[in-house]
Amino acid sequence: MRTIIDDVPSVDPDSAAGPAWDLSSEYPSIQSSEFRNDIATVESSIASLEAMGAAAGARIDEAAGFDPAVDAVTLADLRRFAVADAAARELLSNLAVYAGCVLSTDGSDAAAAAMRGFLDGLSARLGAASASLSLALTLCPASFFEAFCSAPETARFRFALGQERKRRARALPLPAERAIATLSADGLHAWGGLYDGITGKLRCRVRGVDGSESSVGLAKAASLLKRPERDVREGAWRGINAALSVHADSFAAILNAISGWRGSEGSLRSHTEPVHYLDGALHQGRLSRATLDALTGVLRESRELGRRALRAQARLYGVDRLGPWDILAPAPADEGARASAIANIPFERGLGIVRRAYASVDPAMGAFVDSMAADGRIEGRVKDGKRPGAFCTEFPRSRRPFVYTTYQGALSELSTLAHELGHAYHCEAMRDIPLSESDYPMTLAETASTFAETVLGELLASEASTDAEIIELAWSDAQDAATFLVNIPARFEFESRFYERRPAGPVGPDELRALMKDAWAEWYGDSLSGYDEWYWASKLHFHKTGVSFYNFPYSFGYLFSLGVYARREELGDRFHGTYVAMLRDTGRMEVEELAARHLGVDLSRPDFWRASVAIVAKKVERFERLVTAKASLE
């Protein structure tokens, strides 16, 4: 199952609503016979896998000495085990994606919520059943592993298993591995479910555009943070934080439980070599610590560029400094300027713009946008009960991607639509590649999506015909600079400090607020009038249990995609083929190898990252010039 979640609040200019997606191509409903039959198949498969797991487990103490010739029967058994395990995971993931999609559009759907919990339990059973398979192939000699991967039916597992073999010094005895897999559903992932449950039902007191107060869900309240009216944004921000504060102890308990689980597991796995709190994120991102250090070092030396973008935005708004409620604000406009061609865009016209942007790279990309719309694979409605943000997910069985947004016609929503369709195009490019070789990491997940945003921005800039449109597009560039050079690193700073502090004991809400304030002060400096001390509670990414440090991959993807885009002019007609070839390798290479092979660069050195920041600098400088020019005319 692949779901890329993008933490993007929606806007609500009261028009241009997006469509509902149509999931019927996957299942008629959770109550359907098709869904229930697949559950029965998964349960039967797990029972068989548990028997295979017991047989493999009986020989696990001998795994380090397996010989492909002497242990030919075991080799054949493990191959059958691996194929059956992959099939069960594919079907279980298919069911989970469907339940997640239903729950995303209606957080109050009790049947979907119960089903997700049930499927989490099956996932835990499956993990426990296959623990002996994973451990045997991690501990076995290289000759046995090569023999395992040499068969046509198991060659597809080479890269993923090879990644696990790199962590063989951290393997635990089989009973411990099974215990971790079994307990994770109720001991780890349930905490993420609790966060979703609380935020899905949270009500916020906010003031609407007409000045009246009302109680709305978190997603709708978050949508007001992109309203053009500054007092509405501030009121929404304060209303959201007031609602979050009621559950401060619960949110703190969730973060402490998730980090505590990871820390305890890391301690268990430190029997041969120490496990650092970043090791899991590095493994999931398939990058080295040297590459992460090079990236974060360049981000730190570039943070003033992001602050400059924020200061220029403040000047355009006519204020000394933006408030924390302004970081997602649209460009200010003169009276009547909101009727510009890139504001209040109806969905169909917005989709057409994205299609043209995609087609400017290659006709096949434009045709893909058409197919996504025609097949009903885009969700864009505004409704209470929807979870905030945006994401792209893929059904493993059909290999069809679906995108989720809350579309209401602002430029930022158009950019989000292009972004999510970029994720979908990435999935489409890999559709004929085995699932085990198409599971790309978060670091590379943002490549196609951010590239798509850049392509859209270039098209809109080339067609901009008024000063208002030019300013709005430049504003978007400045906002990206502030987000990826300041906001995302501040999230990484907070999470790092939290994980450093957590071993000493649980961290309470007040201390979490202080840690977040310090992180924002470190990165935002004096560019804002205040800091969002409740950011640790409002950001879904901190509470995700399947991924740790769900932050630096965004800055990685932003700068990496700019480096990819820079090759477009250089390669001309050859670019699209090169681009697709790179996307197709994202699930079977580490990031350093991918960049070296397709871009000819070394990501562990700061040069590549500085070159991408130089592209951002030009965008910020252009925005500053536009702001200065506008001020001189007033």
Give the arrangement of secondary structure elements:
Blueprint: E1 2-6, H1 33-57, H2 72-105, H3 110-129, H4 131-139, H5 142-150, H6 158-165, H7 174-201, E2 203-207, E3 213-217, H8 218-223, H9 230-246, H10 248-268, H11 279-285, H12 289-317, H13 347-361, H14 363-374, E4 378-379, E5 390-395, E6 400-404, H15 411-429, H16 442-463, H17 467-501, H18 509-524, H19 535-538, H20 552-565, H21 567-571, H22 575-584, H23 591-598, H24 606-633
Parallel strand pairs: 4-6
Antiparallel strand pairs: 1-5, 2-3, 5-6
Helix pairs in contact: 1-2, 1-3, 1-4, 2-3, 3-7, 4-6, 7-10, 12-17, 12-24, 13-14, 13-15, 13-16, 15-16, 16-20, 17-18, 17-20, 17-24, 20-24
Q: Can you walk me through this structure?
A:
The structure is a single chain. The protein has helices spanning 33-57, 72-105, 110-129, 131-139, 142-150, 158-165, 174-201, 218-223, 230-246, 248-268, 279-285, 289-317, 347-361, 363-374, 411-429, 442-463, 467-501, 509-524, 535-538, 552-565, 567-571, 575-584, 591-598, 606-633, and strands at 2-6, 203-207, 213-217, 378-379, 390-395, 400-404. By secondary structure, it is mainly alpha-helical. Among the domains are: 31-201 and 248-276, no CATH class; 203-246, putative peptidase helix hairpin domain like (Helix Hairpins); 286-337 and 467-544 and 620-634, no CATH class. The strands form two sheets. It has a four-stranded mixed sheet with strand order 1-5-6-4, sandwiched between helices. Strands 2-3 form a two-stranded antiparallel sheet. The radius of gyration is 24 Å and the shape is globular.
